[in-house]
Amino acid sequence: MKKIFGKLFADRGYISQNLFDMLFVDNIHLITKLKKNMKNALMLIHDKIILRKRAIIETINDQLKNICQIEHTRHRCFTNFIVNLISGLIAYNLMPKKPSINPDIIDTDRFNLVA
Length: 115
Prior knowledge:
This protein is mainly α. The protein is built from three helices and two strands, in the order E-H-E-H-H.
């Protein structure tokens, strides 16, 4: 059995100490923005930048579901599901304006600290 590990980027609705502790034990780091009444916590600059990019990812998911209609769940066979999914992805690719993320989000060499 393979263990899942890594970082989970979520919105403020998922903030709870119990959930954070359960995920942390399983080697999953929950990263969210802070609520207004919470104390500031240290966060890696790379994680902070990716958390900002989360809004763009949510926009793309919304466009795929609502404009390209890939969230239809009443397919009668697997072939219809695949055809609907592929046609939705093609429709998204043909859209003239799409949100994008710059993959070169940070130069990590600039932030390495020498002790």
